[in-house]
Write a structure and sequence with these properties.
With 280 residues, the protein is mostly helical. The chain contains 14 helices and no strands.
Length: 280
């Protein structure tokens, strides 16, 4: 079955955020995997920002509990929510690693209750738990190790968070306090790209180190989800490199890449397709 227009529209509105890494690689995904990954990304987009989007942790816990209950009931009772229906139709819900998804929800609940981020080690641990579990769900029963998925997930999530630095003068709670102190960032500080550039450069340097500790290779990708993660990892690495070398320009352009990354992603997609053909 294919997604109906209501389900597809709801998922695309959530998942295909202009300039996001998912939007950047979606067109290069095999057609048979697109709907599954689209519905999963729409689900994650609905969940991952809850901890940072509520002032009362109990509200965030209630929202996450609703999603958990709705997803548990859906296979037997159906759902009125278009994203949940898309997960059912695409088969993503039935094929989901329930342990990984449970770890993901637990990580998000934990984020609601944790203290501000002290340093990069704390930030990495926090993102590895949540975004790493997200990557495990996407990968399915593939061949990538847990450490590879945590590194890929954490670096991709940090890149996504970095883009928020160009959107206003409020200091986000996920920024390590040590970094805020080093660059003397404050609520009243100038939020221009020039002022935020040193912060972005430091974040990009750290994220690239995370990313490269356990690189994802096309040859090792066994599932459609793992092949998506390889494509995303290539795009993340390129964008982090741009942010590290030219942070002010990167912020000025909203944290988006250039036309060169389209060609690079296309080449990686071709390599993945050839690997699949060779393995058959």
């Amino acid at each position: 079955m294919t997604l109906g227009p209501t389900e597809r529209s709801a998922c695309e509105e959530l998942a295909l955020v202009p300039g996001s890494e998912f939007e950047g690689v979606y067109r290069f995904l095999p057609s048979e995997a697109q709907e599954t990954l689209l519905s999963l990304e729409a689900l994650f987009r609905s969940l991952r920002d809850i901890p940072g989007g509520v002032s009362d942790p109990s509200v965030g816990v209630a929202k996450l509990a609703w999603w958990q209950q709705e997803l548990a009931r859906a296979p037997h009772e159906g759902s009125q929510h278009p994203v949940v229906r898309a997960l059912l139709v695409s088969g993503a819900l039935g094929g989901m690693d329930r342990d990984a998804f449970g770890d993901y929800l637990h990580a998000l609940v934990t984020e609601l209750q944790e203290e501000p981020v002290a340093d990069f080690d704390v930030l990495r641990d926090r993102l590895a738990r949540s975004a790493g579990a997200e990557a495990r769900v996407l990968a399915g029963q593939g061949g990538f190790s847990d450490s590879q998925l945590k590194a890929a997930g954490a670096s991709a999530r940090l890149l996504e968070l970095m883009r928020t630095l160009g959107r206003g003068d409020v200091v986000p709670g996920w920024l390590p306090m040590a970094l805020v102190a080093r660059h003397q960032v404050s609520e009243q500080a100038d939020a221009s790209p020039a002022a935020r550039a040193p912060v972005v450069a430091d974040l990009a340097c750290v994220a690239r180190d995370w990313h490269r500790t356990a690189r994802l290779t096309p040859e090792a990708a066994q599932t459609p989800g793992e092949r998506f993660l390889v494509l995303r990892a290539g795009l993340v690495d390129r964008r982090l490199g741009q942010a590290e070398v030219q942070p002010e320009r990167w912020l000025t352009h909203g944290g988006r890449g250039d036309l060169g990354e389209v060609f690079r992603t296309w080449r990686t997609a071709r390599k993945l397709a050839q690997t699949v053909e060779t393995g058959r």
